[in-house]
Amino acid sequence: MVKAKMRPLFLCSVILYHVFTLAACHKVQRFDGYYNNLAYPSWGSAGEPLIHNISTAYTDLTYLPRLNDLPSAREVSSLLFRQNFANTTGHETRNALFAFFGQVVTYEIVDSDDVSCPSEVISVSVPKCDEAFDSACTGSGAMPYARIKYDTRTGQSPNNPRKQINAASSYIDGSFVYGKTGVRASYLRHQGTGKLASLDLWEKFPVLNTVRLPFLTFPNKDDKTTNPETLWRFGDSHVYENPALLSFGVLFFRYHNALVQKITRLNTNTTSAVDVFYKARQWLIASIQNIIMYEWLPKLLNAPVPPYEGYRGNLEPGITSVFDAAAIRYILTLIPMGIRILDEKCSSENNVRLCTSYFDSQKILTKNEHAFEDAMRGMLYQAAEKEDMQIVPDILDKYFGPLHYSRVDHVAYTIMKGRDYGLPDYNTVREQIGLRRMKSFEEINPRLAQENPSLFNKTRQLYGDIDKLDVFVGGMLETGDGPGELFTAILQNQFYNIRHGDWFWFENTKSKLFTEEEIEEIRNITLSDILLATKTLEKQHVPRDAFSIHNLSGCSSAYLDVDNLESCPDHHGYDYFKGSELSFIILWTCFGVIPFVCILSAYAAAKCRKWKHSNEVRKMQTKTAKRDSRNSVSGTEINQHIAYEWLEEKEDERAVVVRIKPRCEIEVDSCTGRRLRTVKLFNQESVYLMTSSNKGRTYTCIKVPKEYDLVLKFENSTSRQLFENDVTHALESNQIQCSVFEERAQDILKNAFTQKKRNQRLEKFFKSVFSEAFQMDYDPHFEEDQLEKQQTKEILETELTKEEFAQALAVKPNSDFVENMFSMLDTDRSGYISFRDFLHMVVIFSKGSCQEKLQTIFGMFDVEGRGFLQKADLSRMFSSLLDMANSNLNKEAVHTLIESICKEHGLEEQTQINFENFCQILSPQMDKLWNAGLDWKGRRKCLPNNNEKKKGSENGRRRASATHEIIKRKGSLASISQSTDEDGMRTPTDSRRGSDIRTKFIAVREQYHPAKAKLKTFTHFIENNRQHIFFLVIFFGITFALFAERFYYYTVEREHSGLRMIMSYGISVTRGAAAAMSFTFSILLLTMCRNLITWLRGTFLNLYVPFDSHVAFHKLVAWTALFFTGLHVIGYGFNFYHLATQPTSHLCIFDSIVLRAEFEPTFNFWFFGNMTGFTGVLLVVCICIIYVYATQTARRLIFNGFWLTHKLIVVMYILTILHGASCIVQKPMFFVYFIGPAIIFTVDKMISMSRKKTELNVIRAEKLPSDITYIEFKRPANFDYQSGQWVRIACLTHGSNEYHPFTLTSAPHEDTLSLHIRALGPWTWNIRQEFDPENHRDGSYPPLYLDGPYGAGQQDWYQYEVSVLVGAGIGVTPYASILKDFVHMASIRNMYKMKCQKLYFIWVTGSQRHFEWLLDIIREVEEVDEKGLVSVDIFITQFFQQFDMRTAMLYICEEHFQKLSGGRSVFTGLKANTHFGRPQLNSMLSAVHRAHPTVKKIGVFSCGPPGITKNVEQGCIEASNNTRALFEHHFENF
Q1: Could you give phi then psi for residue 1446, rounded to 5 degrees?
Q2: 156-185 as b/e: b if 16+ CB within 10 A
Q3: What residues contact 1452, with CB distance under 8 A and at least 6 apart?
Q4: I need a surface site. Which of 3, 392, 968, 1533 has the fewest CB within 10 A?
Q5: What is the largest CA-CA distance in the chain?
Q6: 1314 within 8 A of 1302, measured Cβ to Cβ
Q7: Burial class of 553 by CB neighbour count within 10 A (0 to 12, 13 to 18, 19+)
Q8: What is residue 509's three-state secondary structure?
Q9: H/E/C letters for each residue in 1026-1083?
Q10: Where is 1270: in which H helix or E strand?
Q11: Which pLDDT does position 948 carry in this prediction?
């Protein structure tokens, strides 16, 4: 009940509010025409659509212009409206002031010059050889017509056809003087007074437009657009079109200020400047209303205007489309081709041609002090054009146009406007406004048809049918002494509606704007009164009727014809891209160069850091070398020198210690004491020494025949001289001639025969040897590289040194094996092996029989040729082999080993071993030895061809079975897998733990059809990578879906926005790429949330999401983002080109860009003149820097540069946000993708930062072999981690913000944390030096900063029943932690907490000496592992392959030593199985499945270089295909 009572009260309050609002509005007339009609406030207001009171005739009934079967508008204009200068006379009664005032009337009530946005351009064909637009007679000329701006709410269906916009108020409300907005009017006013702001004290002209009010500005005759700041301020934007319009603007400006003075003088009580301004405005508007309605219009129509009947609110005053596009354009026939400039003495020498004065009006009116007055006086005394069909060429051919089409046909433009509006034909319009239809063309104007029959013949020829006649053409054909019947009716109706529909019409007494006396006073105001009131002209020059040329006094009237005026400028086009060509090329060249500049900077930074690091290393090496040289053998017999050996032009010099022995031997050692080279000069007849004559005289080169030169650089010339003296003295003591020459250092280095050149020659040497030895396996490609005779001679004369021979065998030069073999081949005892000797040896080991091979080995150690070997010789032979394998067995152990071997073969009592006994000892390996060869470093193994191999294999197996029983198989993973290979050959095995394991590993391999095998391969690939594939499909699906959505949106849904019309499909591609970039660059943040990923790995999500691959996914996302970035940049390169070729009017499609009227945006503007373009350029530079420094090479060489440049990603995101903030094309959407990941990343980063700055004290540090540094430091409180995880550390002395990742080698149960860091790059080398115990004897190491732990794939080893760990190089570090953790769990009987029950560890290493620290860990594992839960296999790769002769003999040593030592290896001292060569992962993994047939899923974890992880991946795929188990591979690369 209460609510019911309150409702009427509420409605009453709303009604009262609107009543009072309307009452307030009706006291002061608005500038935009709103509330000029009380019933319908928006009627007639600015921005309202034109009224289509006549049914439209659009082609599609909706919006397409009426163009079908109609002649070209230009052809119509040229044939029907062209002026005949021979019969041209001026108007008999009307002057030019009347004609140009018609333009003022037009712009007062109509402003339909704005074009549609996006611009819809129609090409109007130009007749061939058109004098104005096709003077070259191409026949392809076209004049552009841009369709008029329309109400976007219309044009959607035939029920709602397109309606054009009238930007001006339809009322006569002084908008020509004050503008159509209150804001513009406020800038015209003078603050503190009611006047319009003036430039001078005499108030002759308005103030300058320093506020840059917009004006319609087109280029003048010089193709220059006037700077708006130099113009005067006016209300109407068209005022600068020609001097006549501008003169009326100045006139009304002065009239307003005159009214203010009058009002102020008459109303002394009025103090408000605002009231004075609005009062003067009311009087000015009323004056204009009276002049237009009662002075100008009757003269135009040649008929009186009916008296005012009072305000009628139901009468719509809006401008009709037929009035705008046809009737009001009748005034074109009155406009003359020029403006008479008449001074007060009636002299007219400076008349102005209309076509040359467009938009140069202010310049003309300020030419002299009285130029404005002269122009007004001239128009008073100038006859207008005669009212007929003829239009002056200044409007017909030379009307102003845009830059790209400098002159247009305004008559053709008017015709096209009617077609654009969808106006029906002439007869239809007549019929709908109540006039009769015309049946023939001559009926339109019978009198004119008689006077000018050719005109109607041309009309008939153009249109054919009168029902196709354009309304403007038909209306103009009616012209007689004034507008015809049609135009008169339209004009009368329009002005009638304007007058009676305007509440603020000065005659409306209900509005109470004026009293009866004031209304009567206003009715008597004429244009002449305004001319006198503004003191523009003297009274004698102002007639009572300002629009007539009769009754003039003072000066005589005249008509300006073409002979009295200058000629018009020619029509021409304009290339908007002109001037941008060079910048376009330079800019895109720079864009292409930016990545290379970044690469070059990264290269320079890497070189600089490498140079700095090399200097530090050289200083350290020199220091070490000097210290070692003092501690080494000293005395007068050996002279030592410190120098730097020059190796090659692009290689760094290395510090060396050079020792000169009395026997003319020069030993070159590294700073660590490693022998690099021995130069023997005692067997030379002469030696050449080359000394540098420049660069401080520090270079010396010793020419060594049959070897490469020794080039040394000394610290100074004194050191060099001492070295040369010692060398010369040693040579002279041995009666060897020494010749010393001086050359420039550059020539010495250029002509030096370096080791690289020597190796190239040796390569050809070996190629020649092997091609001779393997003629049946001759390489056909070798024939393509035929050697020249000179090269052949050099090869045949090439001889190998012992060091080169040892290098070819991949063993140490001081090995007994090398010594003996070299001595055997060096028959002439020259210290070199000739081509023939080397070839003989290769043939024996490649094609010789087993007996010949054994005879060679036997002869190597039977130095004296006695035919037998002592046991000491056997010991020496096996010791040399063990030494090559880096075994540390002492002589006693080797002697015991030999005794064991002899005892097993019943030879313990013999002291001499002949060749038969030697063969008996090697009989267990006879099948190996039968096919054994020598493995040459860098070349194929020297094995027999296929036929010989098969024959040898059969004979070998037969002999082996007759002489020795098969050895029991080992229990290790590798031995099981290698117990029998594909050709039936067996490998040495171990007997321990063999009985039970052998039964487990017996399985029948399944056979598959090829098609099924391929299907299973694909199936296993899907199974192994199903998670990765799933999330990759989701990622790429979302990415390309975003791209496709934006592409479709801008191609189809926004097709009419104008973007695609200007930029074609480039806008669709770039917007699609932008959406994909926004998504991918945002996802990048999630992939870097290490703490979140580590935490999620411990949840159930780890079963479904491959968190281990987040680094690989990060790279994939980054490359995807880079792809779309490139697409975006290249796309906008084309887009900006298209934009730079467009006129300013076409750029209205960008709502957020407001261009100055005189400004033509160039290509440079789109790149640097706006925030979007400029930030885009910065983004390209930023992304190039980030990506270049993020490459693998840059991270390895200049990690600090990578770390610093990667922080630019923050700048990149800021620039990306700014890039889209301008909203040029669309609202920014990047934050939608970015805000979520950004918040998560920020929180994750804050967690890391909370840990990073905690200093951790280093407890112990140790320098280990192979450049390994061991660091043990304090474990932070609440630091929980799992075995296999990694951390990031920073050292305070090397930058607290430079973090590097390393895997923890400590186990979770230990109280401290430990790392094993291998020195590879500058940072790790610096760490090795920094934590050298020799530098910190007091134990005060620099503190560390710790960030982590972070998850890795290795930590999931315990989630599989059986796990296989494969580590290579420093990649074994995570497995050190895992092994210790696994054994610890087993020792405390805590295995029920983890799924893993068996662990296989495969260690692939060049030598067990490389990572001796891991041997200690494995030894601890073996001591605790009582149940054999861990199986360890060690593969030594930097040794001989499986069928190498030396490997077979080493297996003999290994087998017997394990029997003697309880299963320990002769090489490692461990129970782990040691193998030589690389693991056969496929067969090994298959063996794992045979050992555990019930396990369906086996985890394989690898860590190391990409090569090893790739092989493991391939092995997992093959094993999954060949077994029933699924091998899931987790890997990490470094």
Answers
A1: -70, -35
A2: eeeeebbbbbbbbbbbbbbbbbbbbeeebb
A3: 901, 921, 922, 924, 925, 988
A4: 3
A5: 158
A6: no
A7: exposed
A8: helix
A9: HHHHHHHHHHHHHHHHHHHHHHHHHHHHCHHHCHHHHHCCHHHHHHHHHHHHHHHHHH
A10: strand 1268-1274
A11: 41
Among 1468, 1446, 1472, CA closest to 878: 1446
What is the pairing mode between strands 1473-1476 and 1430-1436? parallel
Cβ contact 219:406 at 8 Å: yes
What local confidence, expressed as pLDDT, does residue 56 receive?
92
Report pLDDT for 811.
Answer: 59
Instruction: Answer for the pair 971, 992: CB distance below 8 angstroms, yes or no.
Output: yes
Query: How far, CA to CA in Å, does 414 sit from each of 125, 395, 424?
Result: 15, 11, 14
Tokens of 68: 């079908």
**Pair of tokens at residue 1284:** 């296999």
DSSP symbols for 566-583:
PPPPPP----TTTT-HHH
Q: Which residues pair with 320 in a beta bridge?
A: 51
Distance CA 430, CA 426 (A): 6
Question: Cα-flanking dihedrals φ and ψ of residue 1223, to 5°?
Answer: 55, 40
Residue whose structure tokens are 């796990």: 1363
Contact criterion met (CB below 8 Å) for 315 and 500: yes
CB proximity list for 333: less than 8 A, separation 6 or greater: 385, 386, 387, 388, 389, 390, 391, 476, 479
Q: What is the pLDDT of residue 252?
A: 95
Query: In terms of DSSP H, where are the helices of 524-671?
Result: 527-533, 581-631
Residue whose C-alpha is closest to residue 322's, from 440, 419, 445, 444: 419
617 to 602, 655, 710, 1318, 1325: CA distances (angstroms): 22, 9, 22, 16, 9
Question: In whole angstroms, how large is the CA radius of gyration of the chain?
Answer: 51
Q: Name 1143's Cβ contacts closer than 8 Å, sequence gap at least 6.
A: 402, 403, 404, 576, 1160
Tell me the C-alpha distance between 1021 and 1175, whole Å: 44
Segment holding 676, helix H or strand E: strand 675-680
Put simply, whether the predicted model's pTM sits higher than 0.85 gets the answer no
The total of other beta-carbon atoms located within 10 Å of residue 1513's CB is: 17
β-pair partners for 1261: 1271
Structure tokens at 48: 């309202």
The first and second tokens of residue 643, run together, are 């120098």
pLDDT for the residue 942: 38
Gap between the Cα atoms of 5 and 1493, Å rounded: 89
3-state helix, strand, coil in the chain (%, to 5): 50, 15, 35
Specify the 3-state DSSP secondary structure of 511. Answer: helix
Q: How is residue 1018 written in tokens?
A: 């694909």
CA dihedral 876, 881, 884, 886 (to 10 degrees): -90
Question: In this structure, what token pair is assigned to residue 703?
Answer: 């020419």
pLDDT at 773: 59
* CA distance linking residue 568 with residue 353, whole number of Å: 8
Tokens 């402003």 correspond to what residue? 111
Which residues are 1302's β-sheet partners? 1287
Tokens (6 digits) for 350: 């400076």
**CA–CA separation, 288 vs 279, rounded Å?**
14
DSSP reduced 3-state for 1101: helix
**Chain centroid to CA 533:** 68
State the angle between helix axes of 581-631 and 1171-1189 in degrees (0 to 180), rounded to the nearest 10.
30
- Rounded distance between C-alpha atoms, residue 824 and residue 571, angstroms: 100
Query: Sign (positive/negative) of CA torsion 446, 450, 455, 460?
Result: positive
Segments of the chain scoring below 50 in pLDDT: 1-25, 631-636, 776-787, 928-1006, 1008, 1440-1445, 1449, 1457, 1460-1462, 1466
- Contact indicator for 221, 207 with CB cutoff of 8 Å: no
